[in-house]
Amino acid sequence: MKKRDRRRKVIATPVKPARRWRWTALLVAIFIVIAAVALGRSTRHAYSVLEMQCAWSNDFQQVFDQELLLNKYPIFEIQDRYNSTLQLIYQRYGSTLAINMVTAYCRASTEVLCGNYFTNGHPTVDIIIPKLLDICKDEQRKNPSGWRERMRFVLVIGFMHELDHLAFGTIAKEGDKPEPLDQLVNEEANVWALTCENTLAPLIEKYKVQLTAGEYTYYNEWLKAGRDKNSQSWRSFIRWAYRRTR
Ligand SMILES: [Zn+2]
User: Fold this and answer.
1) What is the DSSP string of 118-154?
2) Distance, CA 1 to ligand 1 centroid (Å)?
3) What's the confidence (pLDDT) of residue 24?
């Protein structure tokens, strides 16, 4: 997914790890205060910035600060995929990755959890914290047992999907007009195929971790499509999944 229209304010400087490409990811913590006008079709919740910062630092920050960025994510295949896509992204864009934590919903749709684009000289991944908290609430309500662990996987899968976009998908620049639905479906069908094969498959098939229903839906549809990104059923599923984003 891509979305662009926000004002942003950097309040934390990039963390620049060691010398080689795999250490050169920038973790830029950006918290944005936007008096957002409700443009989405679905529910928006009003989370305070403090609430979002606390949730991020208590439940999610460690995935980046203590695991992926330090080459210490406990699942080998995910760390390996992170390292290889990061290398490709560096080669493709000639600059390091920036990661933004965004405190406003995507204006295009409240369904968007993560986004990617090229801006200010950096390939960038946005993580939409209000959407992340919405999914948290939903997971807590549906099944309180293990919801935090499931949510960390939601974040990691969403993040890895955006890296697949940046490494293999169409290069989107901040400010570009959203592409028409047909074009979006084509892009997402190709990129979700990569994410299913390289992120979801090891988590489900090898490690048998508990995920949320949304992730199982993608994975099961991928299997149903015979792991073929060009199959009609896969394209139809992706069109259905993205129906509310345009
Ligand atoms: Zn996508």
Assistant:
1) EETTEEEEEEEHHHHHHHHHHHHHH--TTHHHHHHHH
2) 4
3) 43
Instruction: Tell me the residue range of the domain where 29 lies.
Output: 21-174
**Ligand 1 center–CA 191 separation, angstroms:** 6
**Domains contained in the chain, number:** 1
pTM, rounded to two decimals: 0.83
Rounded distance from Cα 190 to ligand 1 centre (Å): 9
Q: Is 113 a member of any domain?
A: yes
Establish if 229 belongs to a structural domain: no
Spacing, Cα 165 to ligand 1 middle (Å) = 7
Please report whether residue 159 resides in a domain.
yes
On whether residue 239 sits in a domain, the answer given is: no
